[in-house]
Amino acid sequence: MHRVGVQGQKMSPLILHDPVYGDVIFTEPLFVDLYHTDAVQRLAAIYQGGITAFIKPERATTRLAHCLGVAALLRLLGANPVEQAAGLLHDVPHTAFSHVVDFVFPNHAHTYHEEHREVMLEHSEIPAICARHGLDWRYVAEAENFALLEQPLPWLCADRLDYFLRDGTVDIGAFSAPAAHALLAHLRVWDGHIVVDDLDAARWLGEQFIHLDDVCWCSVQEVGWYAVMAQALRAALKDGLIVEADFAGTDVALFERVRASEDPDIQRWLALLRPDVDFVRDPVHPDLLALPKVRTVDPPVLVDGRAIPLSHLDTAFAQRRAAYIAGKQGEWPLRIHRITA
Fold this sequence. Notes:
By secondary structure, the protein is of the alpha+beta class.
């Protein structure tokens, strides 16, 4: 279980007891200051799995646990304190229900939180704290400024690796903690980027990432639940029950407001958020449309002083990855399917 302990006063070291990385101690005043801000603490009330966490209680990882994990992984990889702080902050702009917002306001890249980053941060305590430490908050809050923290798909980065390791071991149980630790032992920083120093470890990572995307992040059921919640939220916006600014709140607060509605359309959608409701991709008789994000990685493998993408070393993996992406990308027409016991 993820736990954080703080010894003594606010400026004492921050001790992280993490299920993926073990005990990690953050001593830098910048990091500890930022951790205690309301903006960062709000992430304890934002689930990593969005609406799925309300349907499957095992998906209880929060954005705060993930951000601390990203910072811990960056520390493990030797990142400097500013990049570790950037890792802590990188998900602060996330809205309630995380990526559900990208279904409410559809966009192919699922980047609503990134596009609204400045609005979410500029009135928080973060700019003043960064200034006190001699830093420009916009620089620290821009994850793309830090090569170990953030990279575009399909490259490796601390953000992508932490949610893979955390979801895979803690929430979903797709693989064991020893398997995660074995991968961590093969991660290296080479030319400023994260690479894998062993072909078999890279192959395991690439295949397991596809598996997790298929059964979790881009599964038909999870995408369907996101699309259903988006329909309820769009109806609530249309009714004036909520406004777009309410997405800056927390999951439970926003969910309670929507569930309190007497609008039959909203209640019809909410009634589908159950484990026994599944979805089928059906272009002929769809009930709703969804625009999911397909996630795969192509791990760079360190071979004879060069970082070579796994797909260049393993033709079978390259073909499997390409076929998987082709089968998932694009808009999905979904038909609601109730599973009978």
